[in-house]
Here is the input.
Amino acid sequence: MEEFFRPLIVVLVTMAITVSAGLLVDRVLRYAARRDPGTHLPTLLRRAQLPLQVLLGTAALHLTYPLAHLDLRQDVVIRNILATAAILAAAWLVVRVADAVAENLLRRYAERTSETSRVRQLRTQLGLVRRVITSVLVVTTAAVAILLLFPGLRTLGTSLLASAGVIGIIAGVAAQSTLSNLMAGLQIAFGDSVKIGDTVVVEGEWGTVEEITLAFLTVRIWDDRRLTMPVSYFNSKPYENWSRGGPQVTGTVLLHLDYSTPIPILRDHLHDYLRGRPEWDRRSWSLLVTDSTPVDIVVRAAMSTANADDAWTLRCAVREELLTWLGRHHPNALPKIPTALVGGRDATMPLDRAEATVR
Here is the structure.
């Protein structure tokens, strides 16, 4: 009976101590959150409770396993499995803690500053640094540690570490595009050329940068489509960043009108209309004739807005309002399409004589 109850008691006591330690840590974090409501770190660290419980449980079972006196031929394998699980749980815990610290840092910075561009830049940098830590440091360390745990794989792990230079050269040649995207992602994160939340125009599409990773960048287009492209694109090709230097944007509307258009009256109506629009930030506005052709003139209406979204909304509203107002009050100002009767009449011939000639 001792051979059965001894391992059972060891496992149950170990798990009970592990669960109690996890609950104690959670209780301490709750107390810290209630004592200082201004900080978010204790609440965010509670997300790491599950990997902490797994780490404590596997590490405790690995340490208390000899007390069970199982004397199995697979004892070494079982202890190696427990140690491997503990290493993976530790890597998982490091990722969760890093996420909590990064999010807390971002929240505190957002509360102290009113510059949204700085907050978006910090969010982009923290996101890419997190991915670098996860993919390069934590995963690599955990994989090497797992290889070295098993006696049969120690030689393989040592050989991999010894030949890291050769493997790095081969991998660099075979994955040039991947490495270029990796370097481009780091350059974007710390070069401040584009950030999460920026409004950009890429490949003729207008949208907002939604996600930046080490390999690709996702732009959410105005119609909720997602445009995904490698991050190296933004270091090799030109694109428009409407949020660069500040979120303020000046929207423009071009209208092709007739020469008889009353420009001063149209300018006054535009000003009156902008006063009632919440999208206009009242920094600047104008209405000018920017070009002329033999058949019409080009009128440009410009108005400043606080951000790119307001600029798009106001441009559409101003275009619709000006065309509607001209059609109602000055229909002759709308562009006319020159036409000619079939039959080759003289351009100087009156219309009634030309119609009679055609008949």
Remarks:
- The first strand starts at residue 199 and ends at 202.
- Residues 347-359 have pLDDT under 50 and may be disordered.
- The beta strands are 199-202, 205-212, 216-221, 226-230, 240-241, 249-257, 280-292, 297-305.
- The radius of gyration is 34 Å.
